[in-house]
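Need a sequence for this fold. Nothing fancy.
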């Protein structure tokens, strides 16, 4: 089973969680669209300990650090969701999106069109800030309207029990992992969080 990793916004912790779930499932990793540098594939690779994972080349690499639709336009590239295909593998593939669900890849399609097209369950990363309840519940509602399966939510950052409770209550989603506010992030930390994720994975 492949999984698509998205978030309620940019810099919510998708790459960190991607490294955690890749480590937990000994899965492969793929980033369909990379805009700007440093590359998320390199960041995830540097946090994964197992020797099994294959890091597949990005589907499209854009030099401009901007929304994919804007970067593609600047670089005279046409992006269409149907032009991307999930790499072949004998293992699950963790697919990391760019930014949030509604980040455009062209004038009509968004990052969320990828999991809908591929019928891939999605894991939503939510960092807890003022306004995150609204952004998380709107994201979940959008996914439900698009019939995109939500495997669960990952809370990233300093705990906020009141926000977490209302998000889970109103969305009906399961929490897969709580990533605490971290100082240093390295392979040891990722491995420890991967073990925690596995405890919750099939509950």
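Here you go.
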């Amino acid at each position: 089973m492949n999984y698509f990793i998205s978030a309620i916004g940019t810099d919510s912790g998708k790459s960190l969680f991607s490294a955690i779930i890749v480590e937990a499932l000994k899965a492969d990793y793929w980033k369909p669209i990379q805009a700007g540098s440093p590359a998320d594939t390199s960041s995830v690779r540097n946090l994964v300990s197992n020797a099994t994972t294959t890091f597949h080349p990005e589907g499209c690499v854009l030099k401009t650090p901007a929304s994919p639709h804007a970067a593609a336009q600047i670089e005279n590239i046409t992006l269409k969701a149907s032009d991307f295909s999930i790499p072949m593998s004998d293992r699950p593939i963790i697919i990391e999106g760019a930014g949030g669900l509604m980040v455009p890849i062209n004038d009509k399609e968004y990052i969320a069109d990828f999991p809908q097209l591929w019928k891939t369950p999605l894991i939503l990363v939510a960092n807890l800030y003022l306004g995150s309840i609204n952004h998380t519940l709107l994201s979940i509602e959008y996914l439900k309207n698009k019939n995109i399966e939500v495997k669960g939510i990952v809370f990233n950052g300093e705990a906020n029990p009141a926000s977490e409770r209302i998000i889970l209550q109103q969305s009906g989603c399961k929490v897969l992992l709580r990533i605490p506010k971290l100082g240093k992030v390295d392979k040891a930390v990722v491995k420890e969080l991967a073990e925690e994720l596995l405890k919750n994975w099939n509950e």
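For context: Strands lie at 3-7, 28-30, 33-35, 60-62, 93-96, 122-127, 150-156, 175-179.
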